[in-house]
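Problem: given the chain below (193 residues), write out its structure.
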Amino acid sequence: MKQRLWSWRWRESPLRRGVDVAEGWLILAAVTLAAVGGLLAGVRTAGAVDDYLDRQRVERQRTPAVLLQNPKQPPRVDGTSEVHGERTRAKVRWLDGDGRPHRAMTRVASDLKVGQTTQVWTDTSGRRILPAPASGGQAAVQSAFTGASAALGVVALVAVGCRLGQRRIDRARERWWAAEWARVGPEWRRNDA
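Solution.
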């Protein structure tokens, strides 16, 4: 039964109009484009994000840095004095690949003191501090999420396009009905009298 309902636009019928066939082809094209385009967009986007995150892991390196100031302690709402493992900002000094010193503010563990060593992430030249690259698990989740978002974006775009096409078809259908009624309506009114 469902097959007959879905395929009525292509069966020969005196009630079938050109707009019905056009709507059938529009829906078929939209479903195909959403499935294929969404899949391709999702796979390509996930692959591009994964490559980008892999490149970050290769281009960033851990570098030892010395604290030049005590980390700024974040204000405590609960009244406790210190929480270990929390990260806050402090000025650090490190050496690049050529042995030249650099200084910058970065996030460090809040329980470190001036003169202690911590690890920072730098570019391959060692001149700039960068955020830590995503781990393998984080990269996989980020790639999958971005790929799924791209796929859903394509599906949404196709759905909007299909709906706009259906609105145009509905306006054409209404014009056809109005023209038919203008032709047939007077005959019905004569028969009623």
